[in-house]
Design goal:
Elements (H helix, E strand, L loop, with lengths): L4 E2 L1 H6 L6 E5 L9 H7 L6 E2 L19 H11 L6 E5 L7 H10 L4 E5 L2 H7 L26 E2 L1 H11 L1 E4 L3 H5 L18 E2 L15 H10 L8 E4 L6 H10 L5 E3 L2 H5 L12
Parallel strand pairs: 1-5, 2-3, 2-4, 4-5, 6-10, 7-8, 7-9, 9-10
Helix pairs in contact: 4-9
Length: 277
């Protein structure tokens, strides 16, 4: 199985390859300015993937998948083609990069990997950074072909909750149990009945890298996830659910990601919500 991760050392060794494209997909729930971070320091040659801008603005939900044509235009403007060797990272270590990885994969990119440990690990290893106004890549043609098998909506989640698959929620335990208010107005607190809780941070090592092998497998098992059964991942708005999806992929387990996640489910008046463990 080909890994969906790449180390800073391997990325550094591959610098200068003609089809290599490095993408900063940083996004912060607390509103921190990712664009300012990108201007201040980034991996040389990186382009910025804005999760909010590359989204379906008409949906009313945060950073939902756009239509394939809109996605293709946005990626082409960044200089990305579906056949490029794309490496995605973020400034947290592993947070929003997984969401961009998933989006690119769902839209037809053939080779996408996540920089394991992100920019913090790159910096910790003393590797070169650049700042200021980036040099844009030449426009490219990205041929988007949406893969619906990787995307879940309300219908698929409802079927999963009825026993077709397992729903695994990446939010922290207080939000999952309904003990903490949701950050978005109008969204109820709690979780879907029958959903399992696996906070995304449990899949990460102290240095922000993704756990591997049996340790990773054990984290899923400890949350009650049966890796032989279908899985739908979810979270607050579809960002950290992608970390669960990435972890499952590393274990060679396919899953669907609920794009609307709790931002959608928790705002639907007829969607069942429970609180507690």
């Amino acid at each position: 199985m080909t890994s969906n991760l790449i180390s800073p050392a391997e990325l550094y060794e591959r610098r200068g390859e003609p089809t290599l494209r490095v993408v900063d997909a940083s996004w912060h729930l607390d509103g921190r300015d990712a664009a300012a971070d990108f201007a201040r320091e980034r991996i040389p040659g990186a382009v910025r993937f804005d999760l909010d801008a590359v989204s379906d603005g008409a949906s009313g939900l945060p950073h939902m998948l756009p239509r394939p044509q809109a996605f293709a235009e946005a990626m082409g403007a960044l200089g990305l083609a579906e056949g490029d060797d794309i490496v995605v990272y973020d400034t947290a270590g592993l947070f929003s990069a997984a969401r961009a990885w998933w989006m690119l994969r769902v839209m037809g990119a053939r080779s996408v990997r996540v920089l394991d440990g992100g920019l913090p690990r790159w910096k910790a290893e003393g590797r070169l950074l650049e700042s200021g106004e980036p040099t844009p890549l030449p426009p490219a043609t990205f041929r988007a072909v949406a893969e619906p098998a990787g995307v879940a909506g309300v219908a698929e989640v409802s079927e999963a909750l009825a026993g077709v698959a397992q729903v695994v929620d990446a939010r922290g335990a207080p939000r999952f149990r309904g003990e903490a208010a949701e950050p978005r107005p109008g969204v109820r607190s709690g979780h879907m009945p029958g959903a399992l809780n696996l906070p995304y941070a449990r899949l990460l090592a102290e240095d922000g890298t993704l756990l591997a092998g049996e340790v990773l497998r054990e984290r899923f098992a400890a949350a009650g996830v049966d890796l032989t059964r279908p899985v739908v991942t979810t979270c607050g708005s579809g960002v950290t659910a992608a970390i669960l999806t990435l972890g499952l992929e590393q274990l060679d387990v396919k899953s669907m990601l609920y794009d609307g996640s709790w931002s959608e489910w928790g705002s639907l008046p007829d969607a069942p919500v429970v609180t507690g463990a």
